[in-house]
Write a sequence for this structure.
C-alpha cells in the first residue's frame, strides 16, 4: 500500500498524523477485503484551501471537513469483483497498485470538530480518513438506506482500531 501525503499547511497535531493516516488507510483496506495493493493520496490543507477545492469541484461555496475523490466506479459499494476488467484505467503502471483516489482534509476542521464533539483531534482525524476511505470504496450516506450501511462500518472500523471518542 502506498499513501502519498501532501501537507499544504502547518499541522499542529500532537500525534504522529502521518503514521496514523497510514494505519487507518491500511486497516480500512484490509477490513473491507480489498483484494489489491492500493495507492491513496491524502492532502492536508486548511479551511481556505478546502473551500476553494469544494467550490471548484462540487460548486459548493463553503469549507468542509473532508473531500473524497474516488478513482474507481463500482456497480455496488464494496464489490471489487469487476475492477480487473478496467486494468489499464485502474492500476498505476509504475507501481502495479490500484489507484483508489484522493482524500483532502481540512486541518482546521479536524481541530474545530474535535472540540465541538468533545473528543480528541486524533479520533477526528482517523474518523475523517475512515469516512473518506469508505467513499473511495463506493459507499455513500446521501439516503437513509445508504447511511444505514456506511455509518455502522465507520464505527466498527474505529472500534476495531481502538480509536474511541476519548
Amino acid at each position: 500500500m502506498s499513501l502519498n501525503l501532501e501537507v499544504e499547511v502547518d499541522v499542529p497535531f500532537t500525534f504522529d498524523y502521518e503514521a496514523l493516516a497510514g494505519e487507518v488507510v491500511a486497516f480500512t483496506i484490509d477490513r473491507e477485503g480489498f483484494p489489491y495493493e492500493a495507492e491513496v493520496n491524502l492532502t492536508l490543507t486548511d479551511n481556505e484551501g478546502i473551500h476553494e477545492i469544494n467550490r471548484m469541484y462540487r460548486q459548493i461555496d463553503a469549507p468542509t471537513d473532508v473531500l473524497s475523490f474516488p478513482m474507481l466506479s463500482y456497480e455496488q459499494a464494496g464489490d471489487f469483483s469487476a475492477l480487473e476488467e478496467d486494468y489499464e484505467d485502474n492500476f498505476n503502471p509504475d507501481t502495479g497498485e490500484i489507484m483508489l483516489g484522493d482524500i483532502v482534509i481540512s486541518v482546521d476542521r479536524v481541530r474545530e470538530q474535535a472540540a465541538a464533539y468533545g473528543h480528541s483531534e486524533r479520533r477526528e482525524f482517523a474518523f475523517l480518513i475512515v469516512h473518506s476511505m469508505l467513499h473511495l470504496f463506493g459507499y455513500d450516506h446521501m439516503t437513509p438506506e445508504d447511511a444505514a450501511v456506511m455509518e455502522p462500518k465507520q464505527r466498527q472500523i474505529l472500534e476495531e482500531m481502538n480509536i474511541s471518542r476519548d
Notes: The chain has a mean pLDDT of 94.
